[in-house]
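DM from R.C. (forwarded with permission)

"hey, sorry to bug you on a friday — could you get me a structure for this? deadline for the figure draft is monday and I only need the backbone to look sensible"
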Amino acid sequence: MSIRLITAFVISVLFATLFGRFYVPWLRRQKAGQEIREDGPTWHSTKAGTPTMGGVIFILASALGILTVGFADMLQGQFLHFFVFLFALAFGAIGFLDDWEKLKKKQNLGLTAKMKFLLQLAAALLFVVLMERFGIISSRVYIPFFNRFLTVPRWLYYIASAFIICGTVNAVNITDGIDGLAAGTSIPVFLFFVAVTYRTGRHAELGVFASSLLGGLVGFLFYNFNPARVFMGDTGSLFLGGALAAMAFAYDMPLILVTLGFVFLVETLSDIIQVTYFKLTHGKRVFKMAPFHHHLELGGWTGKKWKEKELFCLFTGVSLFFAILSFLGVAGRTF
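My reply, with the result:
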């Protein structure tokens, strides 16, 4: 199995690196430039015009991995990795529509929040229903670290799962605010799934997908690391969020998202806290700017203004720590 996982990773890294050499200049020629938030840090204005929709690089890289290394699994009737990819792709398609609207309008506003949420909710509900129908998941929820199971009512499981998926997808999307941040913090997350696959020896096809996406992200960072030559856009960030949620459910351990996605959770909570406090106090703020990475960029509570490369290292390091912690939290599970 280790050879297959390594092969999928190498193929994806090479493809993403080589494909990006042609794709990024092509995006620039198409004038597919990103519009920057007007209320963001002033120095971000220099990023205006940087091509977006770069997430296509690691999306295609992950597809290549499952269609080459993972093809043997499909010949044996194992399509779970392909199913997970298609689910993530559905969210990537929603992100693509959003990116396209932004490019047409030449502003940092795409689909309405209501439209995006309804599309995401529909995709999430369909995924959960299909996964249960095929016997991949059930309303018997695994509790990491305690190695216990809790049975919940079926209707509650459906509702909670749909909102967990949508929350995860949007949490990754929120984290994509500075060069390399979403990609960097996602790398330890998918490394976790590779490690789980290797340890358990089960669902090799899922490990192939995780390893392929991992390689795609590493290759993508050649173009997205500060100073970024391309942004992943909502096309990429929603795909990543969908892939993360789908993998957690495919392994029937959705609660691991609390620790595994800790960085994404903090980013989301900072946004929620900021908006809520702002409304309750009629204009006061907890953070200099939300989400949290912008708060640190602007000096935080200490006055130190974190540079983008420093934030990349900090957030990726924290993500790696919680990925290791999450691995320990499921180490006692027998599948």
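R.C.: lifesaver. The mean pLDDT is 90.
me: no worries. The longest helix spans residues 2-29.
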